[in-house]
């Protein structure tokens, strides 16, 4: 069974930082494209970042320069370091895996940025 488990969300003040993790099992992690997406209330789900099996990365326009995606193939875990957080970053953040096993999503972790 494929499992994607997000962690690291929480409440932070504007300008603060968080690091989210996505631990995986049941996938061939090293050949899988991993992504973070987010969805705020009343808004469509949007891309945060991709990291391909090659290590190449892509960022959504609203987070580029503030967020950094990474992966640890030995731990089968993906991360996103989120700096200079803004209230507009408040959303549920979802882990996505696209590989030989198909397309799979995690359950999400809440990030709230508020003073």
Give a nutshell description of this structure:
By secondary structure, the chain is an all-beta fold.
Topology diagram in text:
Layout: E1 3-7, E2 10-12, E3 18-25, E4 33-39, E5 46-51, E6 57-59, E7 67-72, E8 77-82, E9 91-99, E10 102-105, E11 109-113
Parallel strand pairs: 2-11
Antiparallel strand pairs: 1-3, 3-8, 4-5, 4-9, 5-6, 7-8, 9-10, 9-11
Give the radius of gyration. Answer: 13 Å
How many helices? The count is 0
Annotation, overall tally of beta strands: 11
Termini, distance in Å?
Answer: 40 Å
Secondary-structure element series: EEEEEEEEEEE
In percent, how helical is the residue content? under 10%
Structural class: mainly beta
The average pLDDT value, as a whole number, equals 97
Beta-strand proportion: over 45%
Shape: globular
Poorly predicted regions: none
Largest sheet: 7 strands, mixed
Mind explaining what this structure looks like?
Helices cover 0% and strands 54% of the residues. It is mainly β and 115 residues long. The strands form 2 sheets. Strands 2, 4, 5, 6, 9, 10 and 11 form a 7-stranded mixed sheet that branches.
Summary keywords:
mainly beta, 0% helix, globular, 7-stranded mixed β-sheet, single chain, 115 residues, 4-stranded antiparallel β-sheet
